[in-house]
Amino acid sequence: MKDKKAYSKYSDFIEDEDFVMWRLTKDESLESEWNEYLKINPDVSGAFEEAIQYFERFEIHKESLQEPDRSLLLEQIQDTYTKVKRRRKLMAIRNYAAVACIILIVGVSFYYTRKNSLSTDDGKVASMVEGIELNDEEIRLVTSSGTTTFNNDIYVQIGDDNTITVLQNEEGNKTEIKADRSKNNKLIVPFGKRSQIKLSDGTRIWLNSGSVLEFPASFTGATRDIYLTGELYADVTKDKNVPFHVHTTNFDVKVYGTEFNVSAYDNTLQSVVLVQGSVGVKTSAGKSEIKLIPNDMAVLDNNSFSKKEVETSLYTSWKDGYLVFDNSSVYEVLTQIARYYNLSFDYENIDDIRKRKCSGKIYLSDNLDNVLTTISLLSSARYTREGHKIHISMQP
Known about the structure:
The protein is of the alpha+beta class. It folds into 4 domains: 10-110, no CATH class; 124-134 and 322-394; 143-220, no CATH class; 226-310, Jelly Rolls (Sandwich), CATH 2.60.120.1440. The chain contains 10 helices and 24 strands. The chain has helices at 10-14, 17-25, 28-40, 45-56, 67-86, 91-107, 313-316, 330-341, 350-355, 368-379; strands at residues 127-133, 139-143, 146-150, 154-158, 163-168, 174-178, 184-189, 195-198, 204-207, 211-216, 224-235, 244-247, 251-255, 259-264, 270-276, 279-283, 290-292, 296-301, 304-309, 322-329, 343-347, 357-363, 381-386, 389-394. The protein has an 18-stranded mixed beta sheet that branches. The protein has a 4-stranded antiparallel beta sheet with strand order 21-1-24-23. A two-stranded antiparallel ribbon has the order 20-22. The longest helix is centred in the first third of the chain and has 20 residues, at 67-86. The chain is globular. The two termini are 42 Å apart. 32% of the residues are buried.
């Protein structure tokens, strides 16, 4: 077991290949090692238990695999792990095991659905997807004081004195900007980046890749208004006397104190998904408001809303660092991945890509190869990378 003295949070364990293999295989020697580790490091027991609970959300879905297939897959995992343990000095195999662990967590429920399609012996390919990694862009915060740029994801907090404090997630640098309370500010998050903001009323906003949010330093009128292009998740502070509104180009959301997701990207399906509380939605030109209750999704189509009940995690999990798909098209999967990692995909046969369906969970790792390998597993495809270029071949 490698040195784990620096572990302090649940994600440290989730990203540890020994931990993953232990949870997948229930290997007795690994269990003994982890028990000994906890005796020596009792202060991390809380994070350790949290990692176990987190992992269980990604476990093999019994309803998706018949028991013979499930048992066979676990045997293969155990066999692979045993071979790796015998050759620990070979780092290439060790690293491969780490990648495989991530794939097994997020993609195993789909593995046997189309396992025979993974073979390329006949040389047939139904369609190709060509991708490229785009140039990294900076996050921009535009205020009355000017434009400030940031290389990494940021957390923004607005103080009572209209001071905007910005923390960069990875670097820990703090920037303070004095804002004009009478003018809106603009947070521009390019593809490949994400940000969080806590507004002056305590409302928390998660802003997804490729999004723009306009917001005031303080709310002073009869309503609390913000303006969105892209996607956000909001946890709105309740205030019966001052309604909260989210405005997009095509529709408005009136909030009554709640948690919800708004997706308003151009050229894609636009929607509102309610997790808690109550919201009303109406088109920009509409007069009547449609009320949503928890687990409702309002979808905008031809300038009117339709409503249906959904599993909210399918639309909100991005803020927690993973994506969930349930019989989703491969095109939809690649579209979300492209936003998250700042990629551009060209499709040789887009109709075929739209028709292909897959289900599973993708952990949004910092390692793009792990994610692309998972997508390949979920969609019965193969991928290769040459520098910044990505080639995905869909099997017939």
